Amino acid sequence: MSPGFSTRAIHGAGPGTEPRRALQFPIYAGVAHDFESAEAMGATFSGRKAAFAYSRIANPTVDAFEKKMALLEDGLGSVAVSSGMAAISTTLLTLLAAGDNIVSSSSLFGGTFSLFRNVLSPLGIETRFVPIDDPDAIEAAIDGQTRAIFLETISNPRTVVPDFAEVSRIARAHRLVLIADSTATTPYLFSAKRHGADIALHSTTKYISGGATSMGGAIVDLGTFDWSAVPALEGYHRFREMAFIARLRKEVYRDTGSCMSPYDAYLQSLGLETLALRMERVCENARAIAEFLAGEDAVRSVDYPGLPSSPYHDLANRQFDGRYGGVLAFSLPDKASCFRFLNRLRLMRRSSNLGDNKSLALHSSTTIYVEFTAEEQKAMGVDDTIIRLSVGIEDPDDIIADLRQALAGI
Ligand SMILES: *Cc1c(COP(=O)(O)O)cnc(C)c1O
To answer: Which SUPFAM superfamilies does this chain map to (predicted)?
Structure first.
């Protein structure tokens, strides 16, 4: 029997990985390591022998975190980076070259949309945005230069859940890499590999960090894609199944300097140990809050896949084993009532993060999505009546009492 999720998250691949038998893998904070000989140094730099040389390229504390992430996703290998955005940008810069395009869900985190439109597009990498629940639109957007499909497991803020069976079937048929941003679900709620993704990405800043302790990102190659189909990896085909990780490590990650700090890797590893416990509580709290909000007169609508009324309820049940994450959105009559609601909160904090142990609230259209036109916001499911909550692990009655008193004054 293979060990369960928390056992793997706590023990990793087992004892014996840390030379002094420290139970917490230590923080190797320095920049560089020395070599026993010039020959050994040459062997490492030419790629013949793995060793730690320089922390921008590899670091033992970061490596320990990467190994746990690969284990939890049942992946082939993992690279930890400085943030969730670094996970997305370095992945795409590894897989794509000018002239290539990707098809992406239009329901996206604002930073991701901005990366695609403002950073990748001037480099000649085009993104074709589609409603991810429309297979015909996905098919119609694909052409000979399409290399990947990008989506979020539960989109932020309107909690759109893609049908992985359907999207991965399309990706397979066209030999496209299916990249899943699993930040909202974490490896605890969602097995990206079992549901047909090829690469799982995480902003580990969110749930994995252990409650907003540190920034981080993780890229996991799930070992399912035949990399010989990707022109940008041409020089790396000799690495076979490791071609993606090889180019990522040897070029994009190293040369863009997107490394994770060893201090942060330490916190992220600690966070992983309690991920399952926290996610259980987060999901339980979020469901109770969604149900409460759905019964309030002032609330026009609630988006949460855990509500039977959600169009994504069945898909979420199938893909996330009866848990629905900690993010929900609800709508109030107008922007002014949203602001009054936010300003009356006493326990919940007004903050743009998610995945904190504290419950957080924000007005999406004037914060994360403020740079986008009303039309672009609409395509991402945002308008000025939407409040997003990131539910924490406080006692649920206290969160609900705070929501109740805030709603009473709008
Ligand atoms: C926060 C977030 C990101 C970006 O992560 P950072 O760690 O802030 O760079 C990407 N995708 C999703 C779904 C997110 O919620």
So the answer is: PLP-dependent transferases (SSF53383)
